[in-house]
Amino acid sequence: MQRNIGTDLPERPPHTLDGEGSGGACGDAEGFRERLRKLASMAGSVNALAKRSGVKQSSLRHYLDKGGEPTRPVMLALCRSMGVCLAWLAGGEPPMGVDEDILSDRFAYLPLFDVRASAGGGSAVECEPVEEVVAFKKSWLTRRFGKSNPQALHLLSVGGESMEPTLHSGDLILVDREELGIQDGSVYVLSLEGNLFVKRIRLKDALHVEVVSDNPKHAGFAIPLSQIGHEVQILGRVVWAGVGLS
């Protein structure tokens, strides 16, 4: 389920997929371990599989070393991240259902974080479990951003209407966490007093910047440059947005 970066409180607390809980999803423990080893091999390593799926590496190693039955959300996360069928991973039922394009080296897998920010009044900073991963062609990322292996690129989902008409609630934004310097007029994800914001930054004078909304109904505010990196944290620059068409 896609989670918005918005002003509303989460319907449930953010969480990492740790595999704990009732309701195991597979009954063939040894067969599942073999299939999980295959997924880890396809991903490149257990760590790579953990990053793709959002499942804790410690949980994956527990399944591989000691067995156990993961919960259905964990199974779904593994399947979606690797493009395989749930019936195959859970019970070994053919077909495996691999999407060769998705699994090829032509794609990079960018995490969509389950966090709360705001294109509005601000929302509390939460921990950052991965909600899901989204595949992008590496050639497109290289052409657009010069990043064929974009470890610093993360996805978030916008909530609120203060950045309209540029960004609408539900739009996906791609944030480059290496872009921390201020470019006049660019859009950034900011952390201010424990809240996340999606705002545009303009240079006001030699000592101040102005944090503004694209929606004229929302007033901007000035902050001293000396607060950047202290009271105000720049978490990354918004370099792309997947906007909905009304």
- Architecture (CATH level 2) name of the largest domain: Ribbon
Quaternary structure of the protein: single chain
Strand tally is 10
Distance between the termini: 22 Å
Query: Which class of the largest domain in CATH terms?
Result: Mainly Beta
Largest sheet: 8 strands, antiparallel
Helix and strand succession? Answer: HHHHHHEEEHEEEEEEE
Question: What structural category do the secondary elements indicate?
Answer: alpha+beta
CATH superfamily of the largest domain: Umud Fragment, subunit A
* DSSP helical segment count: 7
CATH fold title of the largest domain: Umud Fragment, subunit A
DSSP strand (E) fraction?
A: 25-35%
Helix content: 25-40%
Q: How big is the Rg?
A: 20 Å
Low-confidence runs: 1-25, 123-127
Report the average pLDDT across residues: 78
Number of domains: 2
Shape: elongated
From the structure above, extract its key features:
disordered N terminus; two-stranded antiparallel sheet; elongated; about 250 residues; eight-stranded antiparallel β-sheet; alpha+beta; 434 Repressor (Amino-terminal Domain); 7 helices; Umud Fragment, subunit A
Task: Explain what the structure shows.
- This protein has helices at 29-43, 46-53, 57-66, 72-82, 86-91, 100-103, 138-145; strands at 107-113, 123-124, 130-137, 153-157, 172-176, 187-192, 195-203, 208-212, 221-224, 232-242.
- Strands 2, 4, 5, 6, 7, 8, 9 and 10 form an eight-stranded antiparallel β-sheet that branches. A two-stranded antiparallel ribbon has the order 1-3.
- With 246 residues, it is of the alpha+beta class.
- The protein is built from seven helices and ten strands.
